[in-house]
Write a structure and sequence with these properties.
The protein is α/β, with parallel strands linked by helices and 331 residues long. The chain has a single domain, classed as TIM Barrel. 27% of the residues lie in helices and 16% in strands. It has a twelve-stranded mixed β-sheet, with helices on one face. The longest helix has 13 residues. It starts with 18 loop residues before the first strand and ends with a helix.
Length: 331
């Protein structure tokens, strides 16, 4: 088991990232149509090992990060994911979460919970086995649902479902996905296709969040959508019959949310990426591999100066986004 010391922020508040997405691996066992071109699109040759990830996160916490989400590729493909969670759970974090396609969640839900993982988001675009198989290029829906059920049984009470809505594919399933999620105590969230990598080729299939909301109008209150404090870009609307139930919408294409973004990404090779929609970044690989958390802090500060101005730069609608591999940096 790995452990980290208690560390304190070192950067000034105005320069601090508060949230980070760690791409533990760029490998994935699915090939969703909006994410990668096929199952053979290539992987990074070098990735951080567990010791390097520990030094990386120590530096990130010293740099002000208080919310961590583990992503991939598919993070549950990482053989030491439980040990990584256990190490991060010892840090002074406000939130420790993971996004997964749930293909391996059935076996790992209990170990992850015991290690200290607090929240899970599951990517699930369809409840139709054939459509799910087609959209993921080979995925097994039964295995994913088994993983979701295992997470519920393990005691994860703050589960969210992420569904990317594709016109002509799953855009008629919003109500079914919503009711299925609510019946299990899960909060469904519907995402527009973002013009990143493969998604840039599917912009004629984007379903705007406003259209999704209109489709779900019979189920939802007329309230203005609201964000959760310190919980990313999703905007939520409560259910008409029970305000404890909600639906979230993520509108990265029709209504960008760059202004005020406090998020940093770390690719599995140690590259610090200040924005999802550009390839700009600073490598902290050498610092992490040598265990030099202070050097990681300095790399974070340099990377943060590259953060685009959200008043001018409009994220996934920028031309630079089409050149980014969403799989490689965890979405």
């Amino acid at each position: 088991m790995y452990a980290l010391p208690i560390v304190q922020p070192r950067l000034a508040p105005a320069t601090q990232p508060r949230s980070v997405r760690l791409s533990l691996t760029d490998r994935c066992d699915l090939a969703c149509i909006y994410c990668r071109p096929n199952r053979h699109d290539g992987y990074l040759e070098r990735r951080l090992d567990v010791a390097s990830w520990i030094a990386m996160v120590e530096g990130l916490v010293r740099a002000g990060v208080r919310r961590v989400r583990l992503t991939g590729g598919e993070p549950l493909l990482h053989k030491d994911v439980v040990d990584v969670v256990a190490a991060l759970a010892k840090l002074p974090l406000d939130d420790l979460a993971l996004t997964t396609n749930a293909t391996r969640l059935a076996a790992l839900a209990v170990p992850l919970r015991d290690a200290g993982l607090r929240r899970i988001n599951v990517s699930l675009d369809s409840l139709d086995p054939l459509r799910f198989h087609r959209m993921t290029r080979g995925g097994d829906l039964d295995g994913v649902i088994e993983g979701v059920d295992a997470a519920i049984a393990a005691g994860f009470t703050r589960l969210k479902l992420n569904a990317v809505v594709v016109r002509g594919e799953n855009d008629h399933e919003l109500e079914a996905l919503t009711r299925w999620s609510w019946a299990r105590g899960i909060t469904p969230r519907f995402l527009e296709i973002m013009a990143i990598g493969e998604g840039a080729k599917l912009q004629d299939l984007v379903v705007p969040a406003s259209e999704m909301r209109a489709q779900l109008a019979p189920l939802l209150c007329d309230d203005e959508p609201e964000r959760e404090p310190d919980r990313g870009p999703a905007r939520y609307v409560p259910a008409r019959h029970d305000r404890a139930l909600r639906v979230g919408f993520i509108s990265g294409t029709s209504d960008t949310y760059c202004k005020g973004c406090d998020r940093l990404r770390v690719a599995s090779d140690g590259m610090l990426r200040p924005c999802l929609a550009t390839e700009d970044g600073v490598s902290a690989r050498a610092a992490a591999r040598s265990g030099d958390a202070d050097a990681v802090v300095d790399a974070v500060a340099r990377a943060w100066t590259m953060k685009p101005d959200g008043d001018v730069f409009k994220g996934c609608t920028e031309e630079s986004a089409a050149r980014v591999s969403i799989r490689a940096i965890g979405g």
